[in-house]
Specification:
Blueprint (H helix, E strand, L loop, with lengths): L5 E5 L29 H12 L6 E5 L9 H9 L6 E6 L8 H7 L3 E5 L5 H8 L7 H14 L4 E7 L8 H5 L1 H4 L2 E7 L17 H12 L2 E2 L9 E4 L6 E5 L12 E4 L4 E3 L9 E2 H6 L4 H20 L14 H4 L2
Helix pairs in contact: 1-10, 2-3
């Protein structure tokens, strides 16, 4: 296994979108009340006194929608300026990004992933839920602002849904030709919503690559990412195209990450709920950060077994939380 040094931190479980693959329509979601969220102080304590001492140096802020977190710019600055922080990034839907993109960049955020599942405003609204009318343009403005500010790499995440947006693959891939944008196609994964799109299944990354290859050609890129994406490039393009293939191609042996939920649960594997530990409750109960370090080290020691043990590619199994509640 790779060294596990990358922590995805959910700042909030709420979101201003309700994307079908993240928050299934009709599902009753019990949002975490404010008192149960990790405070900024608690989060910084865990990062400085638990995660960094056991080897974590790279952090990604997620949600829900992380830009809904109060005082987000100040929190970014505090994490970015820790001497041990080697990389700080964020995944966002981009809706609230344009007005604060420059402030986030100045605070120390250098990399950003923005969800863009369609270039068609009507399809976009269908995917993000009933309250999405007119939101595509504001997300697009957020992408443009992030690009102008200088976020590099600027990545666009696309969850490919058969019969919904799969006909746009070539148009989305073409965004990488003239700009240093990096499009990441993600196989749909039914975490916490196994009935969604059950009649449609999912499209393999191999099939997507073949479609793009037939249109422009496709070569393996010399640019490698920090995560599980297999990265390719249209010949002559400025950006890259990545494929995250958690359904069709197991990449457990390359996993270098854990996830911390907004209410303080550390989850060592996205597809397996084994081994989770409640750091927030322990911290509030007065358990020393030295003891918490030891708990995390124990999870690190058995993470490879957790990754593979009883692992199924997302199609069978019971997940107590949806993707929005886990923290993507």
């Amino acid at each position: 296994m790779n060294q596990v040094d990358y922590l995805r931190i959910s700042l909030i479980d709420r979101c201003n979108f309700r994307c079908q693959y993240c928050m299934p329509e009709g599902a009753e979601l019990d949002y975490i009340v404010k008192q149960q969220l990790l405070t900024d102080e608690e989060l910084l304590t865990l990062i400085q006194e638990v995660f960094i001492p056991v080897g974590f140096t790279r952090f990604r802020l997620t949600g829900g929608e992380p830009l809904l977190r109060p005082h987000i710019v100040d929190l970014v600055a505090k994490i970015a300026h820790l001497p041990q922080t080697e990389d700080l990034s964020m995944t966002t839907n981009g809706f609230l990004l344009a007005p604060i993109a420059q402030n986030l960049y100045n605070a120390g955020l250098k990399r950003i992933n923005i969800s863009l599942d369609s270039l068609d405003p009507h399809i976009f609204e269908e995917i993000i839920g009933n309250n999405g009318r007119g939101r595509w343009q504001q997300v697009w403005q957020g992408i443009q602002s992030a690009y102008e500010v200088g976020f590099s790499p600027l990545k666009l995440n696309v969850v490919v849904i058969p019969g919904v947006n799969d006909h746009e693959i070539l148009d989305l891939a073409a965004l990488t030709i003239d700009k240093q944008w990096h499009v990441r196609f993600i196989e749909f994964m039914p975490i916490g919503n196994g009935d969604l799109f059950s009649d449609r299944g999912w499209i393999s990354s191999a099939d997507l690559r073949q479609s793009i290859r037939e249109r422009w050609g496709l070569t393996e890129s010399q640019i490698r990412g920090n995560g599980p994406a297999d990265v390719f490039q249209i010949p002559g393009a400025k950006g890259t195209i990545g494929f995250i293939s958690q359904m069709s191609e197991c990449f457990c042996d390359r996993c270098n990450r854990m996830r911390l939920s907004a209410d303080g649960w550390l989850r060592p594997c996205l597809l397996n709920e084994t081994g989770q530990i409640d750091l927030k409750t322990a911290l509030r109960a007065g358990i020393s950060t030295t003891d918490l370090q030891e708990q995390v080290r124990q999870i690190l020691n058995i993470k490879s077994e957790i990754n593979f043990k009883q692992r199924d590619p997302g199609t069978v199994g019971t997940y107590t939380r949806t993707m929005s509640q886990i923290g993507g």
